[in-house]
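Case study 2.
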Amino acid sequence: MRKVLQSVRQIKSAMRYRKDNVLNSLVRGQYFSTDLSRGGCLCKVSYNGGISRHTQSYYMSSRAMFAGVATVNNGVETGGGPLVEYERRIAEGELLDGDACQVGTLQELQRLYDQLIEKAEDCRLDKYASSDKAGRSRWLWSRLLPQSSCAPVKGLYLYGGVGTGKTMLMDLFFDQLPASWRKKRIHFHDFMLNVHSRLQKHKGVADPLEVVAGEISDESILLCLDEFMVTDVANALILNRLFRQLFSNGAILVATSNRAPDNLYERGLQRDLFLPFIATLKERCVVREIGSAVDYRKLTSAEQGFYFIGKDLSSIIIKHFQMLVGDAQPVPQEVEVVMGRKLQVPLGANGCALFSFEELCDRPLGAADYFGLFKKFHTVALEGVPIFGLHNKTAAYRFVTLVDVIYENRARLLCTTEGTPVELFENIVTISDAQHMAPRTSSRSRKNDNFDLCVDNELGFAKDRTISRLTEMNSREYLEQHAEILAKKQHPAENRAENAVEA
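Prediction:
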């Protein structure tokens, strides 16, 4: 125990010293060149320049001390927190060094982690601390005698540009939490689908939203929601009452988003009814912006041949699809999604599904259908992704959602498109972008206007994320990770044996 306490003191001392000095290790000289050739060639991204590593000897020595440290708090062994794990991964070469923006965010995550460990009992985090019967009794009394019991710890809302590592940092934080805690990490799309499914189940109850909030907070006091976004009025109206009730039940939120809280659901229908949620969110969460000069998704080597550019490429995508399914014979299939709905798959075999763009993105489908699809398939071949604009704005929204779901499931996308990822969205702009466009003058007549220009804030912000993810999903690193995940699913017994031997 003495050694453990000594290690903890050393870590805290090093972290204080690091906080003042690590900011000198900034990202310098990033330059990305994109070579997206025509004629069915893969999207290639090369990285030139480097990341500055001008760090002092004390910094490197602290790394060695951070690695492998474990602490015991309230009888629960933990790994020391997200900052310690981050240092370990840098020391072992798993992560790049030098991003002061990520380090600052990690300090906030470490602050939250330390507070949760210290106040775990007050926050009722341990699911084994009380019996199920006691839990049901508390739930019943809370219905009869409603009481506000907000958690003594504030959550965290992380926002920033695409590829800045928000999801990685949240996952790193989540993975360090004790397994016995009532916690949940879920994509925001999936979370809202779950909420709607529960509301449907409790249809007819006096206040189904209160019951749903009670169920969610009873299962998971700590909610980690990735890619927090609000794009439709139904979710906007639900969120205010839902989270007010969740926070009242003691829930703690950790969320990532591309948008600052004040910019959520910007210019949306009936936004005035959504504004109280923003106020509640800012009251119950520390808001932290992640700024970074690096899009980490583009630091990959996109050289695999799953993104083909050109028209009339049906023969190419069918050829590659057949290579992926092997000897299996593709046949029409059916996938069950939420609330009894079914999605028709034109051709599928061996975990791979083939669609035209119209079949998957130009029909009234949504996140529920896409999540259901990837419960059965790990690869989608998509033919004929068009250039997006005003004429197909709705399809663009669906394509953005599809890419989000593919990325969340670490699935694989084989596609043929009319342009590079950047070119697909060049006609989609935010209101701010549109205001900065050159006004019409005597030399610039109306005939030069782009009539397919789509001015849409939500889609305009989402396009950068989609471009970044399409780039990463073609990288060797992403596809190797996909292969590893697939191998573990296909051979679970072998993986359990390997884990047993390592233990």
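Residues 1-69, 131-137 have pLDDT under 50 and may be disordered.
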